[in-house]
Amino acid sequence: MGSCLGCPCASSSLCLLGIVQSVGKSLTFEQSVREAIELQRNYRCKNPVCETQVWKLRHELDMAQLNVSRLKRLLR
């Protein structure tokens, strides 16, 4: 069974919840991503290995967002 985070404990239904909630809304890609991020931020894994993977992915996401902000500033 796959998962959004590549972690076996993160349920696919959580990922589908984000998709289902955005059906019918006219959201930009960025808005959809932000909603999915908020759903995942509130998710807590009970498996310590999974929790470590989730922490690592959140850190990578934060670093990517900083890089996007930096690139946006350079384009101005």
Walk me through the structure.
Helices cover 68% and strands 0% of the residues. The protein has three helices and no strands. The protein has one domain (12-75). The chain is flat and about 45 Å long. The protein has helices at 12-22, 29-41, 48-75. It is an all-alpha fold and 76 residues long. The model is unreliable at 1-5 (pLDDT under 50). It starts with 11 loop residues before the first helix and ends with a helix.
How would you briefly describe this protein structure?
This protein is mostly helical and 76 residues long.
Q: What descriptors fit this protein?
A:
76 residues, mainly alpha, 3 helices, flat, disordered N terminus
**Beta fraction:** under 5%
Order of helices and strands: HHH
DSSP summary, beta strand count:
0
The number of helical runs is: 3
Question: What does the largest sheet look like?
Answer: none
**Poorly predicted residue ranges:** 1-5
Q: Termini separation (Å)?
A: 43 Å
Can you lay out the helices and strands and say which pair or pack?
Blueprint: H1 12-22, H2 29-41, H3 48-75
Helix pairs in contact: 1-2
